[in-house]
Amino acid sequence: MLNETDRFQLRESVGYRVMGASLFELAGDLGWLNLVARDAETAEGIYAFYHPTFQEYFAALAVEDWHFFLNHIPGNPQHPDARYRIFEKQWKEVILLWLGREEVGKDEKEAFIKALVKFEDGCDGGFYWYRAYFLAAAGIVEFKDCSFADEIVSKIIKQGFGYFDDEIQQWVNVNRTVFRRAKEILKDTDRERAIAALVKLTRNSGDKRTRWVAAGGLGEIGKDNPVAISALVQLIRTSQDENTRKEAAESLGKVGKDNSVAIVALVELISNSGDKHTRMEAANSLGTIDKDNPVALATLADLIRNSSDEDTLRKLVASLGKIGKNNSEAIATLAELICNSGEVSTRMEAAYSLGAIDKDNPVALAALVELINNSGDDYTRWRAAACLGIINKDNSVALSALVELIRNAGDENIRRMATYSLGEINTNNPEAIAALVELIRNCGDKVTRMVATDSLEKIGKNNPVVRATFVELIRHSDRENNRSIVTNSLEEIGKDNSEKIAALVNLIRNSGNVSAQRNAAFQLRAIMKDKYFATAVSSLKDCLTSQDRRKSFNRYNQCYRVIWECAQNMTYPDFYQAWHSQPTNSPIPDNSQNTDRPTLLKQLKPTDKTFPVPLNIRALEGETDISAIAQELCTQLYQTIFPTDTDIPAIRNAPEFKRLIPQLKNRLQTQHIALILHSCPCENALSSFTRKLADSHMGIHIAWITDTALELPLTGFGVDGVDLLDAVQDWIGGIGA
After folding, report:
1. Least confident among 392-396, 452-456, 488-492, 520-524
2. HEC profile for 620-673?
3. What is the reported pLDDT for 702?
4. What one-character-per-residue DSSP string does 14-68 give?
5. Which among 66, 278, 396, 501 has the fewest CB atoms less than 10 Å away?
6. Are residues 607 and 667 in the same domain?
């Protein structure tokens, strides 16, 4: 070969020497090897294999000892005898082919897999341990008799979904960066073994959340697998937990396409379930796996016509919009709802869904235009304009409405959402670009300016006005409030600049602002390459201490994500050297006072469906009286979201509290309210009350910041959890999705 990075080429002299004249010439005659170039100086022929698999296969045949792939010298990976080809992408297929060779002894393969799963990289965070372990997970597909196989699959499942720890009796969430990668690896490992492990959890685990998570896992990897489908059907028919049945129904919609057993089970669930939300999920899945299934369409249409709850109605409408494309009954049902509903948000959802299943439907377009023109509410006008722009791209009414909201909306959240929507529906439109440029230059809100910059990048790519605006921002945005915006434009202006890298690293390390840290980390991952990977590792590694994990959840997580990215692109010896080198940064400031839990949670952002309300309920510690608990939570809720209100309702229990929810959602113009309770132990009376109060059907969702194990429908986030803000924000983003 020319060198180890030129995967598919070799010199003629090398081919003759390694393969011998007869085999080399035969490979040429068969077309396996082809002349692709000649050396500029010697005119020697350079050959390439017809397909890389040929080269990888022959390379695997030539490897006699697994130490060719890995010869770990702990503490000294730079040693000339050290080998770390397991971390080089071009060798992955060769390694898998080697593990599949029948003539390689089982003991030899076992020793290699053991070396992978026991690999110690000598760096906190386990970055290369994960890489080695994930390679082992892929390797057992070729080496199915491996004695470590069950252990490896079990570990990957835990890393990909979290798990219930029997010893401490609570659910354990894993680092979200690892979590995402483990889910991907689960699809590449021994699929049958992974499915069997998940099926076992659905049948044998005594923990409801474990069974629920396992059902979701089968939906991720069980496509067309009869064992997975059978297990999900069994859950639907036998589980006493409604959440688990719904999750199983949703998973069947992902894995059971055209499967008669799955179709029958979902039809049964629709017929037999007394829970309208379960029936809705089942109908949605049925329509997904059995296109135009009349039972699914009829069920959703019937539920729409007979539902009295507006939140449920909107979900049903959204489901019909996914599976009812060009179906006359679905179109008629939605058109009827638009004409007859007195609820603005329901009419809007119906119009959006109708436009999705019947492109340019005049009833849908007219309904959204009417809402834009006649509504006196900015939120409604934004939603209608955003929907109209999606189903009828570049619609001039939608464009004008969004631009008008950007310029005149009295609520900054509405202005921000209109700014985002404009970036989603218009490309290179002069009016849109002018509005965004004006907003960036004049708006006093830093988050809105950041959103405007993102939207401008989307719709004005290669536009000279946009480029000039970014240059102006970089030159003049020297205030702290503008730093996030400047970093947003870095990728567009240029890459691989040492000053920019240093500025982003310092911002992550030194800023006490969570949004600024997150944005800087995102941009750093986008622009760093080559030598700057090592700079990032040596500069940010000191942010991964246990103290940082406790005091600065977001900084820890952002640094972990950046260094994880570095580990995917650096050789292990280079990473090890960078990790153990001395950084040149100034000491990391202790910003724990700036990121205490109440302050941190105030940075949570609402979505278009959910309004988050963090509540400090320290005053309820030790309280057991239900009426006192109900009143204190109600009072705190009103004081947080409506601070000028003096007439706070008097309530005594959860049912009375629930009766307030529709009014609260209407005032907030949202479909869901998410309460995040913190700074108080989740004791028996509080836990029991909040379980009764939480009701996803009514749109009231409750999360606790606690280390106490919680039962559904409550959600828990660890007190010292890594990535607390991002984790809670992700939970909020998933509500109603």
Report:
1. 488-492
2. HCCCCCHHHHHHHHHHHHHHHHCCCCCCCCCCCCHHHHHCCHHHHHHHHCCCEE
3. 93
4. HHHHHH-HHHHHHHHHHTSEEEEEE-TTT--EEEEESSHHHHHHHHHHH---GGG
5. 396
6. yes
* Judgement on whether residues 114 and 30 belong to the same structural domain of the protein: no
Backbone phi and psi for residue 540, each to the nearest 5 degrees, phi listed first: -105, -10
Cis peptide bond prior to 713, omega within 30° of 0? yes
Residue where a domain terminates, one of 550, 579, 608:
579
* Euclidean distance between the first and the last CA atom of the chain, given in angstroms as a whole number: 51
Distance CA(390)–CA(368), nearest Å, equals 11
Concatenating the DSSP letter of every residue in 396-451 gives HHHHHHHHHHHHH-SSHHHHHHHHHHHHHH-SS-HHHHHHHHHHHHH---HHHHHH
Q: Render pLDDT for 327-352 as a digit per residue (tens, 0 to 9).
A: 888 899 988 888 888 888 888 888 88
pLDDT digits (tens, 9 = 90+) for 368-391: 888 888 887 787 888 788 888 888
**Three-class HEC string of 95-158:** HHHHHCCCCCCHHHHHHHHHHHHCCCCCCCCCHHHHHHHHHHHHHCCCCCCCCCHHHHHHHHHH
DSSP bridge pairs for 70: 84
Q: Nearest to residue 15, comparing CAs of 169, 36, 79, 5?
A: 36
Adjacency order of strands within the sheet including 715-717: 610-616, 672-678, 700-705, 715-717
Query: How much of the chain is helix, strand and coil, in % rounded to 5?
Result: 65, 5, 30
Residues 7-29: tens digit of each pLDDT: 567 888 888 887 788 888 888 88
Long-range CB contacts (< 8 A, 24+ apart) of 376-381?
A: 377/344, 377/669, 378/405, 378/409, 378/410, 378/411, 378/414, 379/411, 379/414, 379/669, 380/344, 380/345, 380/348, 380/669, 381/405
Three-state DSSP class for residue 735: coil
Higher pLDDT, 186 or 713: 186
Which is it for the CA torsion 462, 463, 468, 473, positive or negative?
negative
Residue 311 in tokens: 């939140």
Q: Are 297 and 323 spatial neighbours (Cβ–Cβ below 8 Å)?
A: yes
From 355, 352, 357, select the one nearest 380 (Cα to Cα). Answer: 352
The owner of tokens 């489901």 is 319
**In this structure, are 46 and 72 located in the same domain?**
no
In a domain, residue 727? The reply is yes
Q: Do the domain assignments include residue 279?
A: no
- Do 604 and 694 lie in one domain? The reply is yes
- The closest alpha carbon to 382, from 349, 352, 409, belongs to 409
Residue 292 resides in a domain: no
696 contacts: CB under 8 Å, gap ≥ 6:
277, 713, 735
Helices (H) and strands (E) in the chain, counts: 38, 11
Computed from CA positions of residues 512, 440, 611, 216, in that sequence, does the dihedral angle turn out positive or negative?
negative
Q: Strand pairing partners for 84?
A: 70
Q: Are residues 572 and 606 part of one domain?
A: no
Please name the amino acid found at residue 548: D
- Answer yes or no: do 728 and 603 share one domain: yes
Burial class of residue 325 (count of CB atoms within 10 Å of its CB; 0-12, 13-18, 19+): middle
**Higher-scoring residue by pLDDT: 428, 401:** 401
Stretch (H or E) spanning 353: helix 344-357
- Weakest mean pLDDT among 136-150, 184-198, 505-519, 644-658: 505-519
Residues 637 and 705 in one domain: yes
257: in domain: no
For residues 142 and 716, give the distance between their C-alpha atoms in angstroms, rounded to a whole number.
39
Q: Looking at 144, 164, 195, which one is the last position of a domain?
A: 144
Distance (Å, whole) CA 179 – CA 447: 28
Q: Tokens at residue 340, please?
A: 């007859």
Question: CA–CA separation, 108 vs 112, rounded Å?
Answer: 6
What is the CB-side half-sphere exposure of residue 94 using CA atoms within 13 A? 24
- Pair 609, 502 in one domain: no
- Which amino acid does the sequence have at 77? P
Which residue(s) pair with 614 in the sheet? 676
In the prediction, which pLDDT does 473 show?
Answer: 60
Q: Which domain holds residue 566?
A: 498-579
